[in-house]
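User: Hey, quick favor. My workstation is busy. Could you predict this chain's structure for me?
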Amino acid sequence: MSARSWPSSPLAAAGRAFALLVQPPTHVGFDARGFDGLPDEILSLDRLRALLLEPRTSVEVRDGVA
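Assistant: No problem, here it is.
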């Protein structure tokens, strides 16, 4: 990857890094077992992201994951 193709803003760079992290064949997951408000399973990072961004997910759950 060339430096020119990497985003210049910090938020865009974080978004790009996350997108690369969750691309197949990744098996990176988050163990959500024991976190009230999340499914009792190991979640893929993109599914975890979607759950944390849902309006019904409480601030306490978001803070607990962070």
